[in-house]
Amino acid sequence: MKKSNILLGLAGSLILISLVAWGYQIYNGLIVTNMRNSFSWGLYIATFAFFVGVAAGGLIVSSTVYLFNIEKLKPFTRIASLSAFASILGAGAMILPDMGRVDRIWNIFVYPNFRSPLVWDVIVISAYLLITFLSVYVQLLPDRKKEGSRFLNGWTKAHSQEEVEAFSKKWSKRIALVGLPVAILIHTVTALIFATQASRGWWNTAVLPPDFVSVAVASGTALVLVISLLAVGKEQFDQHKGAFQIMALIVAGSLVVHFFFVSVDLIIHGWWGSTEAEEILSLIFSHYGYLYATELMFPAFTMVLFFTEKGKRSYRALMIGSVLLFIGVFAHRLMLMFPAFNAIPLSLSIPGAGIESWAYPVALGQLQEGMPVFVSSWAYTPTLVEYGVTLLPFGLVLFVVTAALKMYNFLPQKRSM
Amino acid sequence: MRLGMVIDLDRCIGCRSCAVACKSHNAQPPGTWWNRVFTHGASFHQAAVGKDGALQMEYLPVSCQMCDNPACQKVCPSGATYTDERGVVLIDYERCIGCRYCIAACPYGVRQYNWEDPKKAKERAGYEKGYEYGYPADFRDKDGRLVYTPNRPVGVVEKCTFCAQYTSRGEQPACVKGCPGKVRIFGDLDDPSSEVSKLVRKRQTVRLKEELGTSPKVFYLAATKPIR
Which domains are present in chain A? Predict the structure, then answer.
């Protein structure tokens, strides 16, 4: 119990720091970030995409149980739904500080432009938030009735415990089955925000949405895995070994698919040999080589580890593999931004002058002593304020998961022990 | 009506008067330029590029290309960016939520964001106290949407409006008026007798990044200077 109080305190302070940083940003404008006109999306959107990704796990794990009848995973459907709900809440919260005029956000609902993938994303993410909440709610109903909890639970008074249990069982399944396509959609649509833009060669590929789904299945399942490991603890690890092995296999298997997509994407970017594509490849392999290496090597290590017998049977290996995967996936989300924005779309070749790709300089939007106003690339690194604001989803996820695990029983068979 | 512009690259001397006229008429804050002129291929403006003694120096003015298929408008979640009845792509400064999706979508890098309150930026730039520049009044379109205001709200996107405050009453945009070389010709592309229509019909024109299918309404007459 003590441990959870410390975690709640930590989560609270993360949220507090982020809100203070956000307040500072609202007061001064987004000038306090290091984003500028030529590099207009940064850490916030990358973090948003990261949390959308890890939100997948919930319904992927739950629906695997119902679709493929994998009973071993059943004890973890509650944790899975909880991790999904917390993550999508974090993703939704992360998008708000990126808006320069968050006070006018209602304009999306009053004057929606349905050709904008951003509007579809708002719709599917809201739907997912609702579905994952209902999923958690329905699964907790029987326990909460037993405890006599009244909050949002009043209607169960008129029903017997058996009736409520049957209701919970039936609706958990229904929600999981409706939720699965929505889970796929949140990644597809989030990827389409980027993939639809022909101005950015790095994004403009049909492989981006399926790749987002594969990364989401891997990282989302890994989050369920980590929370489950922590909830179960080392002592009861052996009891649920089978479930953890299946989760590790889902992670490793979807990483295989991910690396397949990455390979075909790189081949298609590189094969034709256009100067634009060459510029992108030089950005990812030389300029941002370390970050790209992180994106590739860490998940690759996890993939191999989770396929080995030793890896998927050891508490520590599963933990380390998952954490490395999160780092890799976060690097993957950051790498959505760097090669896209530092390849200026308006580039020209000048025949006869030996100039194949000259980027037309873009005005930064800021005048500062000693700095050029027009640039053809921008060495974006987040500011302290951006790091501060970015703590918001981390704090929220930690808070929601810890508070829920503390208040309710998310591992059903603990009761019988 | 489809307002468009023809830019005669043969006549451009790279003086950047259009950029300055645009900047001051439209009260752009420091660091913000709706209109840019660079020597293409060069790392410095007015520096020649080439090899083996075959040097060349050409200028390319770039502002909003007023696409008929504007990616910026299609991505805008709140409909703040729209095309008016004259074919001009505009931004409603009271509708924009500042998500900057349009900046990512625009292939021409012409969209500019108000990263801070423009008044603060102007103050910091050290202009003389009380110095205000640009068209002094708000301008709203026929539906009352705010498409020009001398100091834009913090956190919204702005860009060239074809000088909506002037062209809506039949005047020419500031860059056209301010160009000493008569490089820019502005008019209605739907009217076959307009000068822009005639030039587009008769002369070989280039549109930027045409391969992206954006269908800009800004046409460039290619420089014909022979290089020998």
Answer: 40-352 (1.20.1630.10)
Give B128-194 as a 3 state SS string: CCCCCCCCCCCEECCCCCEEECCCCCCCCEECCCCCHHHHCCCCCCHHHHHCCCCCEEEEECCCCCC
Contacts of B65 (CB under 8 A, 6+ apart): B108, B110, B207, B208, B214, B216, B217, B218
**Mean pLDDT calculated for residue range A349-362:** 86
**Rounded to the nearest 5 degrees, what angle is found at the Cα of A55, between the Cα atoms of A49 and A59?**
145
Q: Which of A124-133, A160-169, B9-18, B175-184 has the lowest mean pLDDT?
A: A160-169
C-beta atoms of A100 and B113 within 8 A: yes
**Domains contained in chain B, CATH given:** 3-34+65-221 (3.30.70.20)
* A residues 283-342 closer than 8 Å to B (CB): 340-341
Q: Cβ neighbours of residue B136 under 8 Å, at least 6 residues apart? A: B150
What is the three-class DSSP state of A347? strand
Residue A416 touches partner B, C-beta closer than 8 Å = no
Write the pLDDT tens digit of every residue in A195-213. 999 999 999 999 999 999 9
Amino acid at A57: G
* B83 vs A: CB within 8 A: no
Q: Which two tokens stand for residue B100?
A: 């900057």
To probe the interface with B, which of A28, A197, A338 has the most B CB atoms within 10 Å?
A197
Residue found by looking up tokens 């929601």 in the block: A400
* A359, closest residue in chain B (CA to CA): B41
Q: From the CA of A264, how many Å to the nearest CA of chain B? A: 23
Give the per-residue pLDDT at A218.
96
Enumerate residues 6+ apart whose C-beta is below 8 A from A9.
none
* pLDDT at residue number B227: 55
- B188, B198 in Cβ contact below 8 A? no
Lowest mean pLDDT among A163-167, A394-398, A406-410: A406-410
What ipTM did this prediction achieve?
0.94
pLDDT of the residue at B78: 97
The string of pLDDT tens digits covering residues A281-318 is 999 999 999 999 999 999 999 999 999 998 888 999 99
Most confident of A53-57, A176-180, A273-277, B95-99: B95-99
- Using a CB-CB distance cutoff of 8 angstroms, which residues of chain B are in contact with residue A373? 31, 33
Q: How far is A265 from chain B (nearest CA, A)?
A: 20
Q: Does residue B39 sit in helix, strand or coil?
A: strand
Cβ–Cβ < 8 Å for A139, A168: yes
pLDDT higher than threshold 70 for residue B225: no
Put simply, whether A99 touches B (Cβ < 8 Å) is yes
Question: Which has the minimum average pLDDT: A353-367, A403-417, B2-16?
Answer: A403-417
Return the pLDDT at A415.
42
Residue of chain B minimizing CA distance to A98:
B99
DSSP 8-state assignment for residue A74: G
User: What's the burial of A230, exposed, middle or buried (CB within 10 Å: 0-12/13-18/19+)?
Assistant: middle
